[in-house]
Specification:
Length: 294
Amino acid sequence: MERRIRIRRIGVFDVFNTLIMLAVCFLTLYPMWFVFVNSLNAPQQALLGTVNWFPKALSLDSYSVVFNDRHMMNGFLITTMRTAAGTAAHVLFTAIVAYGMSRSNLIGRKVYMKIALITMLFSGGLIPTFILMTKLGLYDNFFVFVIPAMYSFFNMVIFMSFYRTIPEGLEESAKVDGASDYGVLFRIVLPNSMAVIATISLFSAVYHWNDYYQGVIYIHSQDKLPLQTILYKIIAENSMSFMQQQAMAQFGAKLPGNSIKFASMMVATLPILMVYPFIQRYLVKGVMIGAIKG
């Protein structure tokens, strides 16, 4: 029996859609590539400000200045600690709250949901929040990065939607065996929710790694500033300070400020980008199940 090979005809829509997606990909990736190329360019090429697809003259002088800067490396450490502690606290606390809110027998569940929804739509404002953080002793404190970000209503809804996909028979069997609510959560529910945990972990980690605003408002000490806040001051306020002085001492006046800015941006961006390939499959599954079943 002869096999008939069906050849799919490429229509106008397919061509148009492909061109649009290629354009979107280019617009998304090119700014990152531009920063990367200019961070590797020699000082003379960086001063020209031209658009290059590849480095004209390879140089690591800018990265040498960045990695030798004590404030930059301390900010990298603060950001790493903040991302690890903040993500763990957020996932754990939100998962516990979502499990309680997903129970239909919870007394006052509808009232709690309405109150939580209000917090998603409205905030107290900058001044009341600043006063609250000060009264709680969180001003110029590392935990100002962790405690206020422990809960998110949006992420709680994603957790709740995923919990509903877990068969109720598993929880009932565990309770018959004498497991408590916390036992069911940590032994049955969470081990079967790795997809949504990976999704929420990525959301939280990206927020903590990229956030600079908390450091600008609540941190006064230079040694407690996260990496993104330092980068914000370098780019927005043009306060090169120690790094610029170090560059001039090491390379004379040859190393321009733009090269240091580009190198700082790459150091601040690459670590979080390297996380995506490892949890991409969990991310897609977690978001899709939460969206479909919710």
